[in-house]
Amino acid sequence: MDTAGLIENRNLELWTTLNTKFKIDIIKEDRDSHAVFIKSGSATIYVPLNPQVSAFTHELLHIFLTLKEIYIGEELALHVKKDATLSKFMSDNLTDHIGNCLEHIKMLPEYLKMGFKREDFIVDYSINKLNAEEVRSIRTHFKRRPLFQKVQFDSKAIDLYIGKYFAVKACPNLTFNYESGLNELMKINSDLYAILERFVTDWEKYDYNDRELITDGYDDILLDLTTGLRDWGKNKNIV
After folding, report:
1. What whole-number distance in Å separates Cα of residue 195 and Cα of residue 202?
2. For the whole model, what pTM was predicted?
3. Are 181 and 129 in contact (CB under 8 A)?
4. Phi and psi, residue 207, nearest 5°
Protein backbone atom coordinates (compact mmCIF):
# COMPACT_ATOMS: atom_id res chain seq x y z
CA MET A 1 0.00 0.00 0.00
CA ASP A 2 1.52 3.30 -1.12
CA THR A 3 1.27 5.88 1.68
CA ALA A 4 3.91 8.25 0.28
CA GLY A 5 2.91 11.84 1.00
CA LEU A 6 -0.09 10.75 3.06
CA ILE A 7 1.39 9.82 6.44
CA GLU A 8 3.52 12.25 8.43
CA ASN A 9 4.16 13.22 12.00
CA ARG A 10 0.81 15.00 12.38
CA ASN A 11 -1.38 12.02 11.46
CA LEU A 12 0.93 9.09 12.20
CA GLU A 13 -0.59 8.31 15.60
CA LEU A 14 -4.12 8.36 14.17
CA TRP A 15 -3.07 6.16 11.24
CA THR A 16 -1.40 3.66 13.57
CA THR A 17 -4.42 3.51 15.88
CA LEU A 18 -6.88 2.99 13.05
CA ASN A 19 -4.79 0.21 11.52
CA THR A 20 -5.11 -1.82 14.71
CA LYS A 21 -8.90 -1.88 14.27
CA PHE A 22 -9.49 -1.59 10.51
CA LYS A 23 -8.14 -3.09 7.33
CA ILE A 24 -7.46 0.10 5.38
CA ASP A 25 -6.90 0.17 1.63
CA ILE A 26 -5.86 3.24 -0.34
CA ILE A 27 -6.87 3.48 -3.99
CA LYS A 28 -5.39 6.19 -6.22
CA GLU A 29 -7.49 7.07 -9.23
CA ASP A 30 -8.28 9.89 -11.61
CA ARG A 31 -10.69 11.85 -9.43
CA ASP A 32 -11.02 15.38 -8.06
CA SER A 33 -11.60 14.68 -4.39
CA HIS A 34 -10.88 12.28 -1.54
CA ALA A 35 -13.52 9.88 -0.22
CA VAL A 36 -13.85 6.94 2.15
CA PHE A 37 -16.07 3.85 2.22
CA ILE A 38 -16.33 2.03 5.55
CA LYS A 39 -17.92 -1.36 6.15
CA SER A 40 -17.50 -4.15 8.73
CA GLY A 41 -14.00 -3.39 9.95
CA SER A 42 -12.69 -2.42 6.52
CA ALA A 43 -12.15 1.01 5.03
CA THR A 44 -11.23 2.05 1.51
CA ILE A 45 -9.91 5.56 1.00
CA TYR A 46 -10.07 6.87 -2.55
CA VAL A 47 -7.54 9.59 -3.33
CA PRO A 48 -6.67 11.63 -6.45
CA LEU A 49 -3.48 10.99 -8.38
CA ASN A 50 -1.98 13.94 -6.48
CA PRO A 51 -3.45 13.46 -2.99
CA GLN A 52 -3.22 15.94 -0.13
CA VAL A 53 -2.25 14.88 3.38
CA SER A 54 -4.81 17.30 4.84
CA ALA A 55 -7.69 15.82 2.84
CA PHE A 56 -6.47 12.28 3.49
CA THR A 57 -6.45 12.98 7.22
CA HIS A 58 -10.01 14.29 6.93
CA GLU A 59 -11.04 10.85 5.64
CA LEU A 60 -9.09 9.15 8.43
CA LEU A 61 -11.17 11.12 10.92
CA HIS A 62 -14.36 9.74 9.39
CA ILE A 63 -12.95 6.28 10.14
CA PHE A 64 -12.00 7.46 13.62
CA LEU A 65 -15.64 8.34 14.35
CA THR A 66 -16.65 4.85 13.27
CA LEU A 67 -14.11 3.56 15.79
CA LYS A 68 -15.94 5.70 18.35
CA GLU A 69 -19.23 4.06 17.30
CA ILE A 70 -20.65 7.15 15.63
CA TYR A 71 -23.19 6.03 13.02
CA ILE A 72 -25.64 8.88 13.42
CA GLY A 73 -26.11 9.54 9.70
CA GLU A 74 -27.00 5.93 8.95
CA GLU A 75 -29.31 5.75 11.95
CA LEU A 76 -31.07 8.97 10.97
CA ALA A 77 -31.61 7.56 7.47
CA LEU A 78 -33.24 4.44 8.94
CA HIS A 79 -35.57 6.56 11.08
CA VAL A 80 -36.63 8.57 8.04
CA LYS A 81 -37.13 5.60 5.70
CA LYS A 82 -39.57 3.88 8.06
CA ASP A 83 -41.55 7.03 8.89
CA ALA A 84 -44.22 8.20 6.45
CA THR A 85 -44.20 11.77 7.75
CA LEU A 86 -40.44 12.30 7.76
CA SER A 87 -40.13 10.73 4.31
CA LYS A 88 -42.36 13.46 2.91
CA PHE A 89 -39.77 16.18 3.41
CA MET A 90 -36.42 14.49 4.11
CA SER A 91 -34.67 13.02 1.07
CA ASP A 92 -31.88 10.43 1.02
CA ASN A 93 -29.48 13.18 -0.03
CA LEU A 94 -30.54 15.25 2.97
CA THR A 95 -29.95 12.50 5.53
CA ASP A 96 -26.53 11.79 3.95
CA HIS A 97 -25.75 15.50 4.14
CA ILE A 98 -26.86 15.78 7.78
CA GLY A 99 -24.77 12.77 8.76
CA ASN A 100 -21.72 14.26 7.08
CA CYS A 101 -22.27 17.64 8.75
CA LEU A 102 -22.67 16.05 12.18
CA GLU A 103 -19.46 14.10 11.73
CA HIS A 104 -17.65 17.26 10.62
CA ILE A 105 -18.75 19.02 13.81
CA LYS A 106 -16.99 16.32 15.83
CA MET A 107 -14.01 15.96 13.48
CA LEU A 108 -12.92 19.58 13.22
CA PRO A 109 -11.57 19.94 16.80
CA GLU A 110 -9.48 16.77 16.34
CA TYR A 111 -8.25 18.00 12.96
CA LEU A 112 -7.11 21.32 14.39
CA LYS A 113 -5.58 19.64 17.44
CA MET A 114 -3.39 17.59 15.10
CA GLY A 115 -1.97 20.79 13.63
CA PHE A 116 -3.84 21.05 10.34
CA LYS A 117 -5.20 24.34 9.04
CA ARG A 118 -8.87 25.17 9.35
CA GLU A 119 -9.01 26.28 5.70
CA ASP A 120 -7.88 22.82 4.55
CA PHE A 121 -10.66 20.96 6.35
CA ILE A 122 -13.15 20.92 3.45
CA VAL A 123 -12.77 21.62 -0.26
CA ASP A 124 -15.59 24.20 -0.29
CA TYR A 125 -14.19 26.14 2.68
CA SER A 126 -14.45 29.47 0.85
CA ILE A 127 -18.07 29.00 -0.27
CA ASN A 128 -20.83 30.65 1.75
CA LYS A 129 -23.20 27.94 2.98
CA LEU A 130 -26.29 30.16 3.22
CA ASN A 131 -26.50 33.13 0.88
CA ALA A 132 -29.28 35.67 0.44
CA GLU A 133 -30.55 34.08 -2.77
CA GLU A 134 -30.97 30.71 -1.04
CA VAL A 135 -32.85 32.33 1.84
CA ARG A 136 -35.18 34.08 -0.64
CA SER A 137 -35.84 30.81 -2.44
CA ILE A 138 -36.72 29.05 0.81
CA ARG A 139 -38.98 31.90 1.91
CA THR A 140 -40.75 32.05 -1.45
CA HIS A 141 -41.53 28.35 -1.69
CA PHE A 142 -41.75 27.19 1.93
CA LYS A 143 -45.47 27.82 2.47
CA ARG A 144 -48.35 28.93 0.28
CA ARG A 145 -52.12 29.10 0.48
CA PRO A 146 -53.81 28.25 -2.84
CA LEU A 147 -57.26 29.77 -3.32
CA PHE A 148 -59.91 27.84 -1.36
CA GLN A 149 -57.38 25.23 -0.28
CA LYS A 150 -55.52 24.24 2.87
CA VAL A 151 -52.11 25.79 3.45
CA GLN A 152 -49.42 23.84 1.59
CA PHE A 153 -45.82 23.31 2.66
CA ASP A 154 -43.29 22.60 -0.06
CA SER A 155 -41.27 19.43 0.61
CA LYS A 156 -38.26 20.59 -1.41
CA ALA A 157 -38.15 23.93 0.40
CA ILE A 158 -38.31 22.17 3.79
CA ASP A 159 -35.53 19.83 2.67
CA LEU A 160 -33.42 22.81 1.58
CA TYR A 161 -34.17 24.69 4.82
CA ILE A 162 -32.95 21.78 6.94
CA GLY A 163 -29.93 21.11 4.74
CA LYS A 164 -28.81 24.72 4.80
CA TYR A 165 -29.21 24.91 8.57
CA PHE A 166 -26.87 21.95 9.07
CA ALA A 167 -24.41 23.23 6.46
CA VAL A 168 -24.09 26.47 8.40
CA LYS A 169 -23.65 24.73 11.73
CA ALA A 170 -20.86 22.55 10.30
CA CYS A 171 -19.11 25.33 8.38
CA PRO A 172 -15.50 25.71 9.60
CA ASN A 173 -15.01 29.13 8.00
CA LEU A 174 -15.23 31.72 10.78
CA THR A 175 -15.06 34.65 8.36
CA PHE A 176 -18.66 34.08 7.29
CA ASN A 177 -21.30 35.79 9.42
CA TYR A 178 -24.40 33.61 9.28
CA GLU A 179 -26.37 35.46 11.95
CA SER A 180 -28.62 37.27 9.49
CA GLY A 181 -29.30 34.17 7.40
CA LEU A 182 -30.11 32.06 10.45
CA ASN A 183 -32.43 34.78 11.75
CA GLU A 184 -34.26 34.67 8.42
CA LEU A 185 -34.65 30.89 8.67
CA MET A 186 -36.07 31.35 12.15
CA LYS A 187 -38.57 33.91 10.83
CA ILE A 188 -39.65 31.53 8.07
CA ASN A 189 -40.56 28.86 10.63
CA SER A 190 -39.57 29.31 14.24
CA ASP A 191 -40.87 25.90 15.37
CA LEU A 192 -38.75 23.98 12.85
CA TYR A 193 -35.75 26.14 13.67
CA ALA A 194 -36.12 25.45 17.40
CA ILE A 195 -36.16 21.67 16.81
CA LEU A 196 -32.95 21.81 14.77
CA GLU A 197 -31.24 24.23 17.15
CA ARG A 198 -31.97 22.08 20.19
CA PHE A 199 -30.63 18.99 18.44
CA VAL A 200 -27.36 20.60 17.30
CA THR A 201 -26.79 22.08 20.75
CA ASP A 202 -27.18 18.61 22.28
CA TRP A 203 -24.95 17.06 19.60
CA GLU A 204 -22.20 19.60 20.25
CA LYS A 205 -22.33 18.71 23.95
CA TYR A 206 -22.25 14.95 23.32
CA ASP A 207 -18.86 13.51 24.29
CA TYR A 208 -18.10 10.19 22.59
CA ASN A 209 -15.26 9.64 25.06
CA ASP A 210 -17.51 9.80 28.13
CA ARG A 211 -17.90 6.16 29.16
CA GLU A 212 -20.99 6.99 31.22
CA LEU A 213 -22.77 7.92 27.98
CA ILE A 214 -21.80 4.80 26.07
CA THR A 215 -24.88 2.78 27.09
CA ASP A 216 -27.40 5.16 25.56
CA GLY A 217 -24.93 7.00 23.36
CA TYR A 218 -26.63 9.61 21.24
CA ASP A 219 -29.87 7.60 20.82
CA ASP A 220 -31.89 9.96 22.98
CA ILE A 221 -30.58 12.99 21.09
CA LEU A 222 -31.49 11.45 17.74
CA LEU A 223 -34.90 10.33 19.00
CA ASP A 224 -35.66 13.87 20.18
CA LEU A 225 -34.84 15.15 16.68
CA THR A 226 -36.92 12.63 14.76
CA THR A 227 -39.84 12.88 17.19
CA GLY A 228 -39.75 16.65 17.02
CA LEU A 229 -39.65 16.68 13.22
CA ARG A 230 -42.44 14.10 12.99
CA ASP A 231 -44.68 16.09 15.34
CA TRP A 232 -43.89 19.25 13.40
CA GLY A 233 -44.84 17.72 10.06
CA LYS A 234 -47.63 15.25 10.87
CA ASN A 235 -50.61 17.60 10.55
CA LYS A 236 -49.24 19.68 7.72
CA ASN A 237 -50.24 19.45 4.08
CA ILE A 238 -46.79 18.76 2.64
CA VAL A 239 -46.60 18.52 -1.15
Report:
1. 11
2. 0.95
3. no
4. -110, 110
